[in-house]
Amino acid sequence: MSGDPGRPAPPYVIEGVGLSQSFGHTRALTDVSLAIQPGECLGLVGRNGAGKSTVVSILSGLRRPDTGVVRLGGEPAPPVGDPAAWRRRVATVHQHSMLVPTLTVAENMYLDRQPRRTGLGRVLPGPLHWSAMRTGAAEVLREWGVDVDVTAPAGAISVEQRQIVEIARALSTGTRCLILDEPTAALERAGVRRLFGRLRPLLAQGVGILYISHHLEEVYEICDRVTVLRDGRHVRTGAVGGIGQDELVTAMVGPEDPLAGTTTIDAAPTPDPDAAPVLAVRHLTAADARGSLTDVSLVVRPGECVGVLGLAGSGTTTLADAVAGLVRPTAGAVLVAGVPLPAGRPDVALRHGIGYVPEDRHARGYVPMLGVGDNITMTITDRLTRYGVLSPRRHLAAARRLAERLGVVSAGTAQPVVELSGGNQQKVVVGRALARDPRVVVAVAPTQGVDVASKRALLGALDEVRGAGAGVLLVSDDLADLAIANRIVVLVRGRTFAEFVEPPWDREALIAASEGLGARDDDPPGTGITGGDTAAGDTTSGSTASGGGMGGTTGASAAGGTTGASAAGGTTGDSAAGGTTGDSAARGGTDEGGAAQ
Ligand SMILES: Nc1ncnc2c1ncn2[C@@H]1O[C@H](COP(=O)(O)OP(=O)(O)OP(=O)(O)O)[C@@H](O)[C@H]1O
To answer: Could you tell me which residue ranges the ABC transporter domain spans (predicted)?
Structure first.
């Protein structure tokens, strides 16, 4: 590890020395070395395409480097091609789900190590002990606080649940070396807290962890040291306490990168409050395993970005899917520019101007073997044809323009998307959603897995769309994403719980609201949200003018329905809880009055 004066003494739990790897003309890694001591958590950071996942596949035994060696506990690693031997020594949670979707959650938890009933040793192993597998899996997942049916196929559970199953599976093998490649990308805050709560005792027991994340605050929270890669090369390694966040970002992007600290997102301009909504969601009710919706109403006006925040299972992704036609609601309506969309018809939603960035980019976002150009122009092929034949010239020009707009780094528009780094795949997905100049962009976690600088570029692209008069419905629990929002609607257990109408956003108030909590202790009287437990059916949601950096909030939820909005249907009522201001009610987009315009 060149340039690391504090290099720990061997034996290392895992050590990669002089690793180099090329893919065709792409040099993914050049002479990278890193090592992890027992009980140490090493962060590995770098921009999209810096080579982090390539390091992970080499250190997990999935790929033999062109040059360099891997040692585990000071000894040579098993040969590539003996995955079972590697799995006993190194537990890896990859960026892409490695669960077998057709097997049950319990079967996935015990892949390769199924418990068996007593047999006759090696000669005649006993039959699989299915009930032990189910009970064991349920127990581990209960410890993680995940309510998953272990007999359900892994393909049927949510992205977040899948990720937790993978992490729990990796940790339950008793390994001394754990590699986590963006483990929190699909986790909400409570999940991240739980994850860190699990990692700390493991570190105390001497397990070494390689931790990859684009969330730098996590690196500062859990890692002892951090290694920075740039363009496949080792740039720096040091104790996290000795490297400030700005320094870390500069090391990642390079001092002369135009994105280094310059691009900021300006405060969102206020859209015309009297403009007819470009998107209206009316009394939407939908059942879905990933979170149901009950009577949710909201509007998005031209030039407006409405953020939607909520914990996993709160219904935020179901709302996005229902607007995009991928979930069929049981009641309610979605209108684009006043025209009701038929339920469950994504093709019609697309034609009416909905651009969609799905949560699960690997399953729904792109066709892996198709090139960047084919993927990014997929929603506009009708516009690129002449006399029924695709015009190669127009196709190439559109592909280049879109890839450039999103800053997709690839070997060219013909490169299959499967070969791109995770963050660049995400840019292709966003590019595809924006290609058709949509009236409304519905984006779920659009910056997931994207590096800090590219994040600004992606959010900038959404901001631009909004600036050009489209509406944006932005579902994200990354509060940095929500910086571009004009309003933020918070869902709790499928219902609208609160609405924040005036930036700048108060981080703590947003988090509290998403967890169904009311005013913070330190809020002055008369400010903040007073929200009860929506399940109790007796919610009292107040609203306020801005105070303490928090915009006015107007709660609107549940059967109590003291705030008229969606539950009462039809009017925006003042809150009985007091503190309601005309401002928040007038601008509150959940009012059906707005939706009806
Ligand atoms: N199978 C492959 N075929 C061709 N090129 C590849 C392949 N896998 C990775 N690459 C290239 O190697 C480089 C490093 O990619 P890698 O996935 O390791 O980056 P990363 O740092 O993990 O990025 P991200 O943060 O976006 O996940 C990229 O230029 C990528 O396009």
So the answer is: 14-256, 276-518
